[in-house]
UniProtKB/TrEMBL annotation:
Protein name: DUF4102 domain-containing protein
Organism of provenance: Rubellimicrobium roseum
Domain Tyr recombinase: 206-379
Lineage of origin: Bacteria, Pseudomonadati, Pseudomonadota, Alphaproteobacteria, Rhodobacterales
PANTHER family: PROPHAGE INTEGRASE (PTHR30629), PROPHAGE INTEGRASE INTS-RELATED (PTHR30629:SF2)
Cross-referenced InterPro entries: DNA_brk_join_enz, Integrase-like_cat_sf, Integrase_catalytic, Integrase_DNA-bd_sf, Integrase_DNA_bind_dom, Integrase_recombinase_N, Phage_int_M, Phage_Integrase
Length: 390
């Protein structure tokens, strides 16, 4: 087949041809429309079957470009390959390598929601990525992200905000593994190599300051004005719970002298799917009765506007008093008090007072108890000690 039989059309003809199908030769056709536009189409036969594939619109692809594309596709046919399937394969491969980190991160987060407290609505899992990684790497295809990219993104916080940087790197590693599971071409060692480039963090972790247990009764007595903040702090001290479940305490969670915290609201109880029961001493029940006067929508500790009091409300009160200790530290106060004044308390019971999960999943499967009554005795003794000065 000569060049002349192949190239039947000219650039001038292409612009002036009437509506209809016009052959350029070699299976290349121009389909002109009534509106003057058109489409380049290539007809080939592969495996005894005729195939038609589009090569682009007349407005975007010139006659010369259409002929070059047709020649490439005919070459595939000579290799006994279906050009349409080959193009689909190329597009799939291109799509794999063009997935952006922001897309992969969102998909990874969605797939892990069921594992996260409250389905991750608080944003604690995603926020390290959202704040420190995605602004710099989010628009990059995951296949192009290297250890140097990760290093440069995390270097500003690696020493100054070590724990946040660690979480960000951990979440990014999960995203890279998720991308690999999707079939994307990624470097699964990039995060480890970035960590090596960043070096050992100079930051030293510090425990949250805790009030010595001997000073707790005096502080408890000073919380006497009956406000939401004072009552919340008193109940926090009496129960030894974290501030999150305390701030979100709803009247429906209290039945008699037991407060049941939903399992998904408890931190550090991975593998423990059941709810957590908190025994309420008479002193705690009295505080709850006082808090009911402030209740709004069933929430015992509402904020002045909407929702519940913030995580900083109780901390700010202690800060204004010039105290270095913070509310979370009362859990340590309680644990130290148990260790020093009730040394015969079994370790499992003492840890259960703080809602800690001990032992392996297998051991817990056989030991089906939350030590409620043993904890009740401990917490009533603690309440008696704490409220002695009131």
């Amino acid at each position: 087949m000569g060049t002349q039989s192949l190239h039947r059309l000219t650039a001038v003809q292409v612009r002036s041809l009437p509506p209809g199908k016009h052959a350029d030769g070699g299976g290349l056709w121009l389909w002109k429309r009534e509106d003057g536009g058109g489409q380049w189409v290539l007809r080939v036969s592969i495996h005894g079957r005729r195939r038609e594939m589009g090569l682009g619109s007349l407005s975007e692809v010139s006659l010369k470009q259409a002929r070059e594309a047709a020649a490439q596709q005919r070459a595939l046919v000579r290799e006994n390959k279906d050009p349409i399937k080959e193009r689909q394969k190329q597009r799939r491969e291109a799509a794999k390598n063009l997935h952006l980190l922001s897309d992969v991160a969102g998909d990874a987060f969605e797939s892990r929601k069921a594992e996260l407290k409250g389905d991750g609505l608080a944003g604690r899992w995603f926020s390290p990525l959202e704040l420190h990684v995605l602004p710099k790497l989010g628009r990059m295809p995951v296949s192009e992200i290297s250890q140097t990219d990760i290093r440069d993104a995390l270097a500003p916080i690696w020493h100054a905000k070590a724990e946040t940087a660690r979480k960000a790197l951990n979440r990014l590693s999960i995203c890279m593994q998720h991308a690999a599971a999707l079939g994307l071409d990624v470097d699964l060692q990039a995060c480890d190599k970035a960590k090596a480039l960043l070096g050992k963090s100079r930051h030293k972790a510090e425990n949250i300051p805790a009030m010595p247990w001997v000073e707790v009764p005096a502080f408890y007595a000073s919380l006497s004005d009956g406000t939401v903040t004072h009552l919340a702090l008193r109940l926090l001290i009496l129960t030894g719970v974290r501030s999150g479940p305390l701030r979100h305490l709803h009247q429906t969670q209290i039945q008699g002298d037991v407060w049941t915290i939903p399992g998904e609201a408890m931190k550090g109880r991975k593998g423990a799917t059941s709810d957590f029961r908190v025994p309420l001493a008479p002193e705690a029940l009295e505080i709850i009765d006082q808090a009911r006067r402030h209740a709004r929508g069933g929430d015992l500790f509402p904020s002045t506007q909407r929702g519940v009091i913030s995580d900083m409300t109780m901390s700010k009160l202690m800060e204004r008093r010039g105290l270095k200790e913070r509310p979370h530290g009362f859990r340590s106060s309680l644990r130290n008090w148990i260790a020093e004044t009730l040394p015969s308390t079994p370790h499992e019971v003492a840890e259960a007072c703080l809602g800690h999960v001990t032992d392996s999943k297998v051991v817990r499967a056989y030991r089906r108890t939350d030590f409620l009554e043993q904890r009740r005795a401990v917490m009533e003794a603690w309440a008696g000690f704490v409220a002695q000065s009131r």
